[in-house]
Inverse folding.
């Protein structure tokens, strides 16, 4: 990848914000080439995802570097396959060391990002979203053939982005998010999600906000059900985004809404022996402990203004199909 990533993305952002569509296309192709040329460069993918959220280059680069460093330190950035095994959430939080405080990863991340959150223009964000979609399609890019591999590796990071962008006020951004979701579902052969996408897609791009919002909520639930194996990693990614951009008006509420069906997929577990942290006579599995710490972090981070959203999030965890979730969550909270 390029040596000076910040300079590259600054130039691309200027090109994407240009009034001439030909200049915009040059900028989009430049970032497509840069990412596809070295698909193993986690930082490039991370920065591209943050820019697609509409964050500035400065915020996106600092956040992308911090996230990539944490992932590389864990030894794994790969998402679980559909129907796959463990999530690796404990590793993403830095194992035992990262678990010593609520949101151990978030604390390290905050030190790396710092400063106020600055948003880019919708035109720039749309350009990066289009570039990400083209990279995953990859029919004519220099990295032809990498699109499906990137979809499998980064699905847990891209899915929250897509669901967030389905709630945009801009029709073009919503349409592009639908296309990106279709690419992911096709690469991963998730037919149930494709069927719901065909059903709800027209409503999501409706001119009537209430219809579009309701369709986005229903499609979010369908995506979480279809990609249930990615729940833990999707939760961690959403928490990361809350930490980075939750202070921006309206974004916290959207991220909390996106989190609900993913949290509803979680089955908290208690196990005995090594590899888990004790809680009195109960030992929570590492992934369950990280999920609960994510929930606690969100509760503290959101504050009183977002109390309804936090209440619904806890209800999604303890009021679902897994009866032991209530008991384990209560034991965790009373043991703090």
């Amino acid at each position: 990848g390029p040596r000076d990533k910040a300079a590259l993305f600054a130039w691309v952002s200027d090109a994407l914000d240009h009034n001439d569509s030909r200049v915009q296309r040059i900028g989009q192709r430049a970032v497509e080439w840069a990412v596809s040329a070295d698909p193993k460069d986690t930082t490039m993918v991370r920065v591209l995802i943050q820019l697609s959220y509409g964050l500035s280059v400065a915020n996106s680069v600092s956040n992308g570097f911090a996230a990539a460093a944490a992932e590389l330190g864990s030894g794994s950035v790969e998402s679980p396959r559909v129907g796959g095994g463990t999530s690796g959430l404990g590793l993403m939080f830095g194992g035992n060391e990262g678990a010593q405080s609520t949101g151990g990863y978030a604390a390290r991340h905050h030190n790396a990002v710092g400063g106020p959150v600055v948003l880019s223009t919708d035109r720039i964000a749309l350009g990066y979203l289009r570039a990400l979609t083209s990279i995953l399609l990859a029919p004519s890019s220099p990295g032809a053939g990498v699109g499906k591999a990137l979809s499998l590796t980064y699905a847990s990071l891209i899915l929250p982005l897509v669901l967030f962008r389905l709630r945009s006020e801009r029709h073009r951004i919503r349409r592009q998010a639908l296309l990106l979701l279709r690419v992911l579902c096709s690469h991963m052969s998730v037919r149930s999600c494709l069927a719901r996408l065909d059903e709800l897609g027209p409503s999501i791009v409706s001119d009537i906000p209430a219809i579009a919002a309701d369709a986005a909520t229903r499609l979010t639930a369908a995506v979480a059900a279809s990609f249930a194996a990615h729940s833990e990693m999707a939760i961690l990614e959403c928490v990361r985004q809350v930490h980075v951009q939750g202070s921006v008006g309206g974004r916290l509420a959207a991220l909390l809404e996106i989190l609900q069906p993913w949290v509803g997929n979680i089955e908290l577990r208690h196990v005995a022996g090594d590899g888990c942290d004790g809680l009195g006579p109960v030992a929570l599995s590492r992934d369950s402990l990280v999920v609960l710490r994510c929930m606690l972090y969100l509760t503290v981070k959101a504050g009183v203004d977002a109390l309804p959203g936090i209440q619904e999030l806890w209800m999604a965890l303890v009021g679902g199909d897994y009866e032991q979730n209530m008991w384990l969550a209560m034991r965790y909270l009373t043991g703090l």
Summary: The beta strands are 277-279, 282-284. Residues 72-113 have pLDDT under 50 and may be disordered.
